[in-house]
Amino acid sequence: MTEPDRPDGPGEALIRVNGLTKHYTVRARNLRSLATRRSIVHAVDDISFELFPGTCIALVGESGSGKSTVGRVLTYLDRPTSGEVLLRGKAPNLKKRSEVRNYRSQVQLILQDPYASLNPVHTVAYHLERPLRIHDMVKSKSEARATIIRLLEEVHLTPAAQVIDKLPHELSGGQRQRVAIARAVAVQPSVLVADEPVSMLDVSVRLSILNLLNELVTKSRLALLYITHDIASARYFAERLLVMYAGEILESGPSEEVTQSPAHPYTQLLISAAPDPDASARGTRRKMRAPGENPSLIAPPSGCRFHPRCPHAMDICAKSRPPRFQINDSHWTSCWLFGDTPQTQPGAAAELPAPQKKVTKTTGSTRDEQ
Ligand SMILES: Nc1ncnc2c1ncn2[C@@H]1O[C@H](COP(=O)(O)OP(=O)(O)O)[C@@H](O)[C@H]1O
Ligand SMILES: [Mg+2]
Q1: Which one, of 354, 322, 317, lies nearest residue 2 by Cα?
Q2: What would the pLDDT profile of 290-335 be if each residue is shown by its tens digit?
Q3: 95 CA to centre of ligand 1 in angstroms
């Protein structure tokens, strides 16, 4: 099991994810023989990290890397196959509905699509009153209305009295996402998991929604897991990045450091693929070649899952999953290129053969840059 990702976080961790694994069983029928074949999708494999109050951590990776699965398991909408998710050191007893309900009120999920997450036939007031009633947070109709007005003001949907009785189709995409955020914070959670919260919105409103989330994190000391495929927004928005590829976390560190000096070749690839307006204006945009595609999670590659696409792959990369190598106290990567730096898991690579090919360590640029 991987060691927890321990940045020098402010205080006790709110959420501790230990060796989390989620596999899905899928059944496919062969149309000729009509035989059914069972396959296992390795959506998330043995990941560990922590979330702290008043802090935003971004989980970044391409589509299909397992990010949403992490979000669903963190909110116990899906159960982990193995490993654990602890809130203030305790996992809910999944057999007790009240414990699961209490956990879910503390760990709220905000989804990508504000169009789908609100019911078109119900007003804003209905959407916000429901969680308040379910969690017994208001006693009367008038108290509910006053609380809803306060929530709408908190997410800057003003004048609140004009918004409260509107139907979702009367609001813009950004306003709908603000309602979804108000609904998530209505029950005073400790943790928000925001799964691509701005990717379906107009570019012009994305920043204001991210700023709103940031404001809530600071004001209410929430822990936020910002799930995104967009490393540029993650850098702007989060203190720390967790870089995910094919169900595993390959690198983690302070956002600025990971984006300025990415250690893992996959992180370098993500950064090189991200639009950089400054570089294109200067005509100095560098792009790294990315041979291959995302691997199948039914039969993921052996060893390092990125090795079939990695421009620096060595023999060992196909044989053994790299452990965490510490680049410094708060930045680590799972990559054999760093095989001579200290490991987070002592002994994990003790029996492994030495790398066959000597490769020069790189951080910023790579030999495939054009
Ligand atoms: N309920 C499910 N049943 C089977 N496979 C699933 C299910 N949910 C997700 N997956 C698979 O798990 C992998 C990771 O998916 P997901 O977590 O949605 O990735 P991301 O959010 O990074 O795009 C994908 O291969 C996806 O097809
Ligand atoms: Mg997703």
Answers
A1: 322
A2: 555 788 899 999 999 999 999 999 999 999 999 999 999 999 999 9
A3: 25
Q: How far apart are CA 165 and CA 101, in angstroms?
A: 28
Q: How far is CA 273 from the centre of its chain?
A: 19
How big is the chain by its Cα radius of gyration, in Å? 22
Taking only the tens place, the pLDDT of each residue in 218-230 is 999 999 999 999 9
Q: Is 163 helix (H, G, I), strand (E, B) or coil?
A: helix
- Give burial (CB, 10 Å; 0-12/13-18/19+) of 227: buried
Q: What number does the ligand 1 atom closest to the CA of 62 have?
A: 22
Q: Which amino acid is at 293?
A: E
What pLDDT is recorded for position 345?
53
Q: Ligand 1 within 6 A of 333 CB?
A: no
What is the number of the ligand 1 atom nearest to the C-alpha of 44?
A: 14
Residue of higher predicted confidence among 91 and 32? 91
Whether ligand 1 lies within 6 angstroms of the CB of 111 is answered as no
Class of domain 15-260: alpha beta
| Better-predicted residue by pLDDT, 320 or 279 | 320
Domain spans of the chain? 15-260
